[in-house]
Amino acid sequence: MDRRSFIFALALGAATALGGAGTASADSTVHLRLLGTTDLHVNVLPYNYYSDKEDVTVGLARTAGLIAKARAESKNSLLLDNGDTIQGNPLGDFVARERGLKKGDVHPVYKAMNLLKYDATTVGNHEFNYGLDFLASAHSGLTFPVVAANVEIAGSDRTYLKPYEILTRQVTDEQGQVHSLKIGVIGFVTPQITTWDKSALADKVTTSDIVDAARKYVPELRSQGADIVVALCHSGLSADPRHGMEENAAWYLTEVPGIDAVVTGHQHKVFPGPDFVGLPEADSAKGTIHGVPVVMPGFWGSHLGVIDLTLTNGDGKWSVADSAVAVRPIYETRDKQRVALADSDPAIVEALSADHEATLAYVRQPVGETTAPINSYFALVQDDPSIQIVTNAQAWYVKRLLQGTEYESMPVLSAGAPFKAGGRGGPDYYTDIPAGKIAIRNTADLYLYPNTVRAVVMTGAQIREWLEASAGAFNRIDPNASGEQALLNPSFPSYNFDVIDGVSYRIDVSQPARYDGDGKLAAPEAHRIRDLSHGGKPIDDGRKFVVVTNNYRAGGGGKFPGLDGTNIVVEAPDENRTALVNYIFDQKTIDPASDGNWSLSPIGGAAEVTFLSSPKARDAIPPVSRIAYLGDGGNGFGKYRIDLTK
């Protein structure tokens, strides 16, 4: 071999050994780890601003410990977020409503995410609650891209945000060779944002169907050289028949060719896991739907989602040969106590210390007094003062707006729901306000979300159907069956259990639910709502009423019959919480007693009907009551009996 041939051979061997960026041999195998969070809702620190104490079950600062461990276990990883980040607790409200964001300010949740070096995020529906100007100010502090493919600028075919991003990353294969991998990240959000936040988004943005947007942009991503495509889908999992513009479309998204992995959320559940047992085409052991790896990592920082992809190269193209999916919790329950599984990241705690202290000062400001304690321990089983105060405030607020209008003479009803009623939030997730001073944090505790006030016109017949849908919160009880029967349907969100004040009624749980959880008429012959009356007389089905609610419900949120945004007559600029604060300011002292306008009907028989609530609720049972404490209910809850026999 001459000198020139020797040098050429040496150079070729060196290039082969190094596996230069962009060069992949046919047997190259790369393990890529995707880490995901979703529905953080400003829960950065492990602190509950409503109870004003530490909380080990929440907080990105704790999730950060899991992130660091998961990164250390893998040669190649990406950290992704699935939206609903800037709204959801008093820290978010303080920044958006009280302090604001000046030029150069970084939103507290994005401070933490920047420190953790996220690679990309999308928007959730709650990103739009404070309007587009605030959202733009918040996004200006990001050091990583935000993508959304199904939100368009009104009157154009251009997306409001970039539909996708191609991230070029250097990855190391199993032989130690380095390759240049192009990872396409595409985002989607529930298309209902334009209804739920109509006043903030009307004539500014429109939305398109998630699956249709994916079919449009995923081929474009591939044509631009993306080796793999990851979808960040702020939408839940449902296999209900597809009609288009689904709120929960992630199940169908996995059928779109070219998508290699999906991070989903919005439903505040966990996949893989027991939350989705029986979901068609889902493999909970492997964490796939239609063969595509999918993760839904809880909410409020409760879990870290982990998708491990095994990538192989053939003919110069990367493909997913195998996958594994897991969710890692930040806490577990031991001996009825919740124990942290990760320590808080000190850098994040330090970065948010000033924001935290300012929020504490904000939420501790007094606005009035209450003559008695207010709690939501029994809000799902009997008329409750924690809802009564909200419905009273809403009616007070809207009656003033109706003066001088064509609706002034109509009866005003008011709908409210228990936002904090245990369930997935755990045994401490209840409103519990002692008698005495009421602070801003207490009003936020009574009304959790930054919804805005709406009023709709409904007939008596429509109100009956509204209440029938709400009564889906209960399981059917057999009066003659022996043994315990659980009263509450665990799959029914408490925020969909609307109580309507201004009418009286009873709920017969021996009947099947008339509507299913998706708003479909499930039992046409069934009627749980009994003795519906107004002013002491049976309600006139044809009479019209003004019903005060919020933008979410009035716009169709929860899929209640008769509520689709077309019958709104009051579209107020104020939040329901603002109405509540102003009401307390106006009244100065409030009496939180409920008026008992609804109850569960006696069903006879000898059924032992039970439900779970906080163990603290035993001290809130009045001397004469249908409710009795039975003992430990598991997972930190107490078990209670409610007597429906007579």
From TrEMBL:
<dbReference type="InterPro" id="IPR029052">
    <property type="entry name" value="Metallo-depent_PP-like"/>
</dbReference>
<dbReference type="InterPro" id="IPR008334">
    <property type="entry name" value="5'-Nucleotdase_C"/>
</dbReference>
<dbReference type="InterPro" id="IPR004843">
    <property type="entry name" value="Calcineurin-like_PHP"/>
</dbReference>
<dbReference type="GO" id="GO:0000166">
    <property type="term" value="F:nucleotide binding"/>
</dbReference>
<dbReference type="InterPro" id="IPR006179">
    <property type="entry name" value="5_nucleotidase/apyrase"/>
</dbReference>
<dbReference type="GO" id="GO:0008663">
    <property type="term" value="F:2',3'-cyclic-nucleotide 2'-phosphodiesterase activity"/>
</dbReference>
<keyword id="KW-0511">Multifunctional enzyme</keyword>
<dbReference type="GO" id="GO:0046872">
    <property type="term" value="F:metal ion binding"/>
</dbReference>
<comment type="similarity">
    <text>Belongs to the 5'-nucleotidase family.</text>
</comment>
<dbReference type="InterPro" id="IPR041827">
    <property type="entry name" value="CpdB_N"/>
</dbReference>
<dbReference type="GO" id="GO:0030288">
    <property type="term" value="C:outer membrane-bounded periplasmic space"/>
</dbReference>
<dbReference type="Pfam" id="PF02872">
    <property type="entry name" value="5_nucleotid_C"/>
</dbReference>
<dbReference type="GO" id="GO:0008254">
    <property type="term" value="F:3'-nucleotidase activity"/>
</dbReference>
<feature type="domain" description="5'-Nucleotidase C-terminal">
    <location>
        <begin position="368"/>
        <end position="563"/>
    </location>
</feature>
<keyword id="KW-0732">Signal</keyword>
<dbReference type="InterPro" id="IPR006146">
    <property type="entry name" value="5'-Nucleotdase_CS"/>
</dbReference>
<protein>
    <submittedName>
        <fullName>2',3'-cyclic-nucleotide 2'-phosphodiesterase</fullName>
    </submittedName>
</protein>
<dbReference type="GO" id="GO:0009166">
    <property type="term" value="P:nucleotide catabolic process"/>
</dbReference>
<feature type="domain" description="Calcineurin-like phosphoesterase">
    <location>
        <begin position="33"/>
        <end position="269"/>
    </location>
</feature>
<feature type="signal peptide">
    <location>
        <begin position="1"/>
        <end position="26"/>
    </location>
</feature>
<keyword id="KW-0378">Hydrolase</keyword>
<dbReference type="InterPro" id="IPR036907">
    <property type="entry name" value="5'-Nucleotdase_C_sf"/>
</dbReference>
<keyword id="KW-0547">Nucleotide-binding</keyword>
<dbReference type="Pfam" id="PF00149">
    <property type="entry name" value="Metallophos"/>
</dbReference>
<keyword id="KW-0479">Metal-binding</keyword>
